[in-house]
Input
Amino acid sequence: MGDQALLLARAQFAFTVSFHFIFPAFSIGLASFLMVLEGLWLRTGRGVYANLYRYWLKIFAVAFGMGVVSGIVMSYQFGTNWSVFSEKAGPIVGPLMAYEVLTAFFLEAGFLGVMLFGITKVGPRLHFFATCMVALGTFISATWIISTNSWMHTPTGFAINAQGQFVPAGSWLPIIFNPSFPYRLLHVVIAAYLTTSLVVGAVGGWHLLKDRTNPGARKMFSMAMWMVAIAAPAQILAGDAHGLNTLEHQPAKIMAMEGHYDSHPDGAPLILFGIPNPATKHIDYAIEVPKASSLVLKHDWNAPLAGLDTVADDREPPVAILFWSFRVMVGLGMVMLLLGLASLAARFRRKLYDWTPLHRLAIAMGPSGFVAVIAGWITTEVGRQPFTVYGYLLTAQSHSPLRASAVATSLLTFVVVYFVVFGAGTYYLLRLMAKPPEAHETEPASTPQRAAGITPAPALDKE
Output
C-alpha cells in the first residue's frame, strides 16, 4: 500500500504541476509583450498598438487567473501528500516560497487591477507603470520558484540539525544562488518568451490567412517572428550551458538523457533515436553519431564519458522517460529554430505577410512551446529521481503516510475538476484568439494617449 500511495502521490503532483506550468510559461512572456505594446503605443501613438494591447490584455487576464488557481492547489499538496518533505525541507523551502509571495505576488496583486481596469481612469504614466510592475512581478515570481526548485537539485548552504531538517548554515545567498539556479532561470525565462511568441505568431498567422490586410494580424505576426528568430537560437545556447552544468552536478541525469547505459572511455556516441531497454540496459535499434556526445558535452571527440554502469541500480533515474522527453524538447527546439530562420528569409524577400506556408507552419507550431516546456520539466524533475533533495532525501522517504485509496480519490477528483474547469478556460481563450483584432477600433475618450495630449494615428497603419 505504501508503494502504491507513493506512486499515486507522484502521479498527482506530476499532473497538477504540468497543468500549472503551462500558464506561467504563457503569462510571463505575455506580460512582457503587453509592456512592450503599451510602451510603443505611448511612444508612437499608433492605434495598432492600442488595439493589440486591449486584444491581448483580455487573454492575459484569463491565463493569469488560471495560473494563480492552479498554483494554489499545488501548494496544498506539500502538506497533504508530502508532509515528510515539508517537515525536513521546510526551513529552506518555506522562506523561499514566502519571499515569492511577499515580493512577487503582492506586487502583481497591487497593480493588476490598475492594469486591467484602469486604462481609462488613470494617467498614461501610471497605467504603463502598472503594466511594467505586473511584468516585473511575473519575472520575480519565476526567480523565487526556480531558486527553490534549483536548490532541490543542487542543494548548497545548508546544514542538517538534530531533527534531520535542512536548515541554513549561515548566509542565504548560497541557498538562493545555488549552482544550477542561473542556468535554470535563464532556460525557463527564454522558454516563456518563446512559448508566448509562438502563440502570438500562431494567432497572427491564423488571421493573416483570413485577411492579409488586417494591421493587427500583421503587426503581431511580425513581432512574434522577430522574437522566435532571436529566442530560439538563444534557447539552444542556454540549454547547452544548462546541460554542461547538469553534467557537473547531476551526471546520472545526463547519462539517462543520452541513453548511455555503458561507459565510453574513448568517446561516447550521440544517440539520436532508439528504444531504451531497461531489462538488458541497452538502447535497441539505436541510430547514433560516433563520439558526437563527447564533442557536445566535453568539446572533445575522444573525451571519456561515464555511463549508468557506474551508478547503483537503485539510484538510476528512469531512463526511458528521460530519453524521450529530452528528445521531444530538443526536436521541437530545432523546428522552432527552423521557423525563425524561415521568417527571416520571408522578411528578407518581403513575403512575411504573403507566404502562406510560413503562416501554416506558425499555426502548427502554436502549441509547441507548451509541449516543449512540459517535456523540459519532465526531463528536469524525473532526472532528479530517486531524490526530492538531490543526494540527501529520497522521494520514497518524503511522502505522507496515507492510504493509496485516499490519494487515488484526490487524484481522480483533480483530473475531473481540472479537465472541466481548465478545459472551459482554455476553450474561452481560443474563442478570444479566434476573434480578429479590430482594424478600426475607436479610441476611448480617456485613453492614456488622449490624456497625454497624443493624437493616435488610425488603427489601420501601413506596415
User: Anything to note?
Assistant: The mean pLDDT is 87. The two ends are 64 Å apart (CA to CA). The chain has 14 helices and six strands.
